[in-house]
Write a structure and sequence with these properties.
Layout lengths: L17 E9 L5 E10 L4 E5 L6 H8 L7 E6 L2 E2 L5 H6 L1 E5 L10 H5 L1 H5 L4 H14 L4 H4 L9 H13 L5 E5 L7 H18 L2 E6 L2 H7 L2 E6 L3 E6 L1 H6 L4 H7 L3 H6 L22 E3 L4 H11 L3 E6 L2 E7 H6 L2 H14 L1
Parallel strand pairs: 3-8, 3-9, 6-7, 7-8, 11-12
Antiparallel strand pairs: 1-2, 1-4, 4-5, 9-10, 12-13
The protein binds adenosine-5'-triphosphate (ATP) and magnesium ion (MG).
Magnesium ion binds next to helix 1.
């Protein structure tokens, strides 16, 4: 993905980089929620913060929109120190999505979505057009759902309204605190999928907090693993994190099934060999060139085959054998993913 300073989002909009430098927060009762935390999030990148309960994830997030003032350190958005900006004004350019959404119960869905545009003084027609555009974008029918009240929607639908509302005034940055944790696993998986599609369109800079390593791996361009006191253990791509955890602490956190998770974030191309080895390219199952090793293994197990043919459209371009899947050197896979992340 584009990692340069300002990212065009297709709709002529932009995202901003976020830099946290030696940021700390001591609450008035003496609790050191965050000791000394630094992180660089590139424009258009989706960074995930993950770590055990109470390690300071929400505190970090809320310092970025100044809902919490840091006790020390500097936070820059697009290189500008947020301490020099009016907090209310700042928050209008930062979308914020929290668990259980926090919709206003006595306002319609459309009015909820238009909250920040209204604060910014947009005219009514523009607010309605924008609200309906956003509802559509998150998969809700404006004519059916726009006039309803939050209690007349399902949990998953409310969650989508929360995302629409956060995006309404086209913020440079989106902060999301466990946005999908209040819905059941099936709805969550669907929302995550939709959210990835949405992000491919709007390309915001996103910092997303979660407890769930699967969610982190699925959504994150990079994942920051935190320990108590906001101690940063590792900040890396999902593939890198799963193949080369920086310490035993990270390794324990990402879990014993990280090997399987790694397959889902590694390209089939990392295990691909020339077609020469395969006698009949029509026989083995096909996997698209943008597929993962997980897809390749699943296809082999389903078809009871020892290899798959990798296709680019209809054209066979290589083959992957069962044993090759497990021979991909971890570092290599992480490096290639890094390259594609930077170049694509
Ligand atoms: N207002 C407050 N006053 C004192 N301590 C606080 C306050 N808010 C949070 N804390 C403490 O700061 C630490 C970090 O809290 P924070 O909410 O950032 O954690 P978290 O990583 O988001 O946890 P969770 O995963 O449970 O949401 C915790 O020990 C918490 O008890
Ligand atoms: Mg929290």
């Amino acid at each position: 993905m584009d990692a340069t300073a300002t990212t065009d989002t297709g709709a002529g909009r932009s995202a901003a980089s976020i830099t946290l430098q030696n940021v700390g927060k001591v609450y008035p009762d003496g609790t050191v929620a965050v000791g000394d935390f630094s992180l660089d999030v590139q424009a258009g990148e989706l960074a995930v913060l993950i770590g055990p309960s109470g390690c300071g994830k929400s505190t970090v997030l809320r310092m970025i929109n100044r809902l919490i003032e840091p006790s020390k350190g500097t936070i820059l958005i697009d290189g500008k120190n947020i301490a020099d900006q009016d907090p209310v004004e700042l928050r209008r350019h930062i979308g914020y999505v929290i668990q259980n959404v926090g919709l206003f119960p006595h306002q319609t869905i459309r009015t909820n979505v238009g909250t920040v545009p209204r604060l910014l003084g947009w005219d009514r027609k523009r607010i309605k057009t924008r609200s309906d555009e956003l509802l559509d974008l998150v998969g809700l029918d404006p004519s059916r759902h726009g006039g309803r009240y939050p209690h007349e929607l399902s949990g998953g639908q409310r969650q989508r309204v929360g995302v629409a509302r956060a995006l309404a005034a086209d913020p440079l940055v989106l902060l999301m605190d466990e946005p999908f944790s209040a819905v059941d696993p099936i709805v969550r998986a669907r929302l995550q999928e939709e959210f990835l599609r949405l992000q491919a369109t709007v390309r915001k800079t996103i910092v997303l907090v979660t407890h769930d390593i699967d969610e982190a791996v699925r959504l994150g361009d990079r994942i920051a693993v935190l320990a108590q006191g906001g101690r940063l253990l590792q900040f890396a791509t999902p593939a890198e994190l799963l193949s080369n955890p920086a310490s035993d602490e990270v390794s324990r956190f990402v879990g014993s099934d990280r090997g399987i998770r790694r397959l889902a974030v590694t390209s089939v191309k990392d295990a691909m060999r020339p077609l020469g080895d395969v006698e009949d390219v029509d026989r083995p199952p096909k996997v698209p060139a943008n597929g993962t090793l997980y897809d390749a293994l699943a296809a082999m197990l389903t078809a009871d085959s020892l290899n798959v043919v990798v296709v680019d459209g209809d054209r066979p371009i290589g083959t992957v054998s069962r044993s090759a899947i497990f021979e991909v050197p971890n570092e290599e896979a992480a490096r290639r993913r890094d390259e594609t992340t930077t170049l694509a």
